[in-house]
């Protein structure tokens, strides 16, 4: 019943149309480009019934006011209510559940990139997907703008890692190649990193998206989700997961990827 369509936006963002094919209802994740959203909704012949906002940054939430104007004030716009998302009218929090047609949605509060960051876990009888905004990227994670390594470790390695391994990961940006180049610099003996990098470079050369990955995959090549691995800890010269995530993020912030 569930079908997910990535919609590129801005320079490297992704919006996502989540469709319940049985009911014809759909939701849009992070609608920054409202005109493009409406074009896709019309082309797909679905009924747009909600918007899911992962966090308040303009490149994710910048279209909410315009969307509300287009769809009407009662149109459900979900997100964390801290006054930083315009036209938000459905405040959500950790473990809050609702529906998109017949799809089940659970919001997961993952503070760090922003204090109000929400990931959305969506499933039907067969498929599972999580929309991770700027918390989890393919082979990477978001910057700690409003939080700590402790919070990011919980978000990645407790909350998201605790989802079923087959859960598909739909992130907010196309950063995969640069993330994997960084992963190779700290986890160079990991063949999963090398294989995924080769795969991602091929897709990007063809102008194709590298989403989704899966939770299972991320545990094999994402250094931020491999911080319990002895080789990673030794490479970084630290003794625990939180210190490892902190050092990885510090190194990634200054890493210059030769894409």
UniProtKB/TrEMBL annotation:
<feature type="domain" description="Metallo-beta-lactamase">
    <location>
        <begin position="12"/>
        <end position="173"/>
    </location>
</feature>
<keyword id="KW-0479">Metal-binding</keyword>
<protein>
    <recommendedName>
        <fullName>hydroxyacylglutathione hydrolase</fullName>
        <ecNumber>3.1.2.6</ecNumber>
    </recommendedName>
</protein>
<dbReference type="InterPro" id="IPR017782">
    <property type="entry name" value="Hydroxyacylglutathione_Hdrlase"/>
</dbReference>
<dbReference type="GO" id="GO:0046872">
    <property type="term" value="F:metal ion binding"/>
</dbReference>
<dbReference type="GO" id="GO:0019243">
    <property type="term" value="P:methylglyoxal catabolic process to D-lactate via S-lactoyl-glutathione"/>
</dbReference>
<comment type="pathway">
    <text>Secondary metabolite metabolism; methylglyoxal degradation; (R)-lactate from methylglyoxal: step 2/2.</text>
</comment>
<dbReference type="InterPro" id="IPR036866">
    <property type="entry name" value="RibonucZ/Hydroxyglut_hydro"/>
</dbReference>
<dbReference type="InterPro" id="IPR032282">
    <property type="entry name" value="HAGH_C"/>
</dbReference>
<dbReference type="Pfam" id="PF00753">
    <property type="entry name" value="Lactamase_B"/>
</dbReference>
<keyword id="KW-0862">Zinc</keyword>
<dbReference type="InterPro" id="IPR035680">
    <property type="entry name" value="Clx_II_MBL"/>
</dbReference>
<dbReference type="Pfam" id="PF16123">
    <property type="entry name" value="HAGH_C"/>
</dbReference>
<comment type="similarity">
    <text>Belongs to the metallo-beta-lactamase superfamily. Glyoxalase II family.</text>
</comment>
<dbReference type="InterPro" id="IPR001279">
    <property type="entry name" value="Metallo-B-lactamas"/>
</dbReference>
<keyword id="KW-0378">Hydrolase</keyword>
<dbReference type="GO" id="GO:0004416">
    <property type="term" value="F:hydroxyacylglutathione hydrolase activity"/>
</dbReference>
């Amino acid at each position: 019943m569930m079908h997910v369509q990535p919609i590129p936006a801005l320079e490297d963002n992704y919006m996502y149309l989540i469709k319940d094919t049985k009911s014809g209802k759909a939701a849009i994740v992070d609608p920054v480009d409202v005109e493009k959203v409406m074009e896709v909704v019309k082309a797909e012949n679905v009924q747009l019934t909600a918007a899911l906002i992962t966090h308040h940054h303009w490149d994710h939430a910048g279209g909410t006011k315009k969307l509300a104007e287009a769809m009407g004030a009662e149109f459900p716009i979900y997100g964390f209510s801290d006054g930083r998302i315009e036209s938000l009218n459905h405040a959500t929090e950790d473990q809050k559940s609702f529906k998109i047609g017949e799809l089940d949605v659970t919001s997961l509060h993952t503070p760090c990139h922003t204090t109000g960051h929400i990931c959305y876990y969506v499933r039907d009888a067969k498929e599972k997907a999580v929309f991770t905004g700027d918390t989890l990227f393919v082979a990477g994670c978001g910057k700690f703008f409003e939080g700590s390594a402790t919070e990011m470790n919980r978000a990645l390695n407790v909350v998201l890692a605790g989802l079923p391994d087959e859960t598909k990961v739909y992130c907010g940006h196309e950063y995969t190649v640069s993330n994997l180049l960084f992963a190779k610099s700290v986890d160079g003996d990991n063949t999963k990193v090398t294989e995924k990098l080769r795969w991602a470079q091929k897709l990007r050369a063809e102008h194709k998206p590298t989403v989704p990955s899966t939770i299972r995959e991320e545990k094999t090549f994402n250094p931020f989700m491999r911080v319990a691995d002895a080789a990673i800890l030794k490479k970084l010269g630290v003794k625990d997961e939180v210190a490892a995530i902190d050092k990885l993020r510090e190194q990634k912030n200054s890493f210059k990827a030769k894409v």
